[in-house]
Structures are given as C-alpha cells and as structure tokens.
Write a structure and sequence with these properties.
two-stranded antiparallel ribbon; alpha+beta; 6 strands; 8 helices; disordered N terminus
Length: 240
C-alpha cells in the first residue's frame, strides 16, 4: 500500500506544506508534492466555481425596506456594493505587471488582488515560458479551467516557482472563505490509520486524500479499503 507521509525526501517547496517529496515525485522532477498538485486542481475546478457563485450573490449590501405589491420600498437609499466582494470579483488585464515573476506583491498594492488578477499572472507566466496560447477569456472561470488542465499542472509542478503558486492560491482561497464563510466540510472516518493505528482519519470535501491528523499520513479511499480488508483477513486468521 502506498501512503503519503511527511519527511520522505527533500521538502515540498510550498511554505504551506510540510511533506517531503517521494521517489516518484522526484523522478518526475517535481518541486511540490503530489497532494499539493491535487489540491491546486481542487481549488481551481471544484471550490472556486462554488465560491464565485456565492460572491456574485453577495455583491450588494443588505438593505432594509418594506415590500408592497411586489416592489420593495427602501426607507433609505440602497447602500453601495460590498468592497471586499467587488474587489475579489474585479477584472484583470493580461499585461498588468503588478508583481514580479515570483508573485511578490509590491508595496504600493493595497488589499488582496481580484481572483482574476491572481490567476492571470500565473497563466501569463506559463504561457511566456512554454509559448502556449493563453486562455480564451480572462474571467476567473476561464483562467481557473486553463490553469487546472493536466498539462499545465504537470508543467507547473516541476517549476522552481511551483511552491509559490501553491502558497498564493492557498492565501487566495483563505481570503475568499473569510468573505463567503463557505468552507469545505471535514468529517471523521471510522477506521484506524493503517500507519499509526489512531482513530484520527479525516476526509474533506473534494479531496482525493484522507488525512491522519496524528501521524500526518495520507491515503486514497482505495488504499483504506484495502487496509480494512487486510485487517479483517488477519483477524479471521488469528481467530481460527
């Protein structure tokens, strides 16, 4: 059985990850671990679209008023849109050079960049390095879909800036969650960890891996199913 545990080899280059790179990841010349590559794809294709729907529905500040005959009569003038939401949903330009190639924000940049503003820099970096055609549109959805393509993620995972990409997307997701209050659900898994035997396995929405919060190993659902069958077989044998 293959498990993903920390400190197997050279560290994953993402500051927000403490795992070591495994042999197959080193053979692929990766600078970030497989779980980090997977979570980037999850953020781009599963979580961001859902978060954007919530943000779109939160553009306008709540107002108070009375409804009469299907019309709302406001006691006060409608309030302007929420600055935090409008900022996250703001546009991006392909040639907008706010940050350096390794995505460090300049001192004159105030507040978080729009979602599209974060994603467009990474798309442009990949296009510049690989001479690939850019996304057809610069919307958050189009940019996220383009960056989540298998060829793009595989290429990015082997670049020296891959860890910065993972860290920046992690910060972007954290910022969005703070605004929407929408977070993936975590649930306990009623099975002992195959590595440390602790009952501390946790699964998270959309995630490929199930985490052990005690020894920090990671397992796919297929690996846990195999571990359960092996344990059951061992107990049956010992009882004979």
């Amino acid at each position: 059985m293959t498990t993903t545990a920390p400190h197997h080899g050279p560290p994953c280059s993402a500051a927000t990850c403490h795992r070591g790179l495994r042999d197959h990841e080193l053979d692929n010349a990766q600078t970030i671990c497989g779980p980090c590559v997977h979570v980037i794809g999850v953020w781009l294709t599963a979580e961001l679209p859902r978060q954007i729907i919530v943000l779109e529905g939160s553009r306008q500040r709540e107002t108070t008023g009375a409804s009469t005959g299907g019309r709302t009569i406001h006691r006060t003038a409608p309030l302007p849109g929420r600055d935090d939401v409008l900022n996250l949903l703001g546009p991006a330009a392909w040639n907008d050079g706010i940050r350096d190639p390794y995505r460090q924000a300049h001192a004159d940049q105030h507040g978080p960049l729009p979602i599209a503003g974060v994603l467009v820099h990474w798309a442009r970096l990949v296009c510049d390095e690989r001479r690939w055609n850019p996304p057809a549109a610069l919307t958050p959805h189009a940019l996220a879909d383009w960056l989540a393509r298998t060829a793009v993620l595989d290429y990015a995972s082997r670049r020296p800036w891959a860890g910065v990409l993972r860290d920046e997307l992690h910060e972007l997701i954290r910022t969005i969650r703070a605004v929407t209050r929408l977070r993936p659900q975590r649930r306990p898994v009623p099975q002992p960890c195959p590595r440390c035997d602790s009952l501390t396995l946790v699964e998270t929405d959309h995630q490929l891996y199930i985490d052990c919060t005690t020894c920090e190993s990671m397992y796919t659902r297929a690996e846990l199913a195999l571990a359960a069958r092996i344990t059951a077989a061992a107990l049956t044998t010992s009882a004979v």
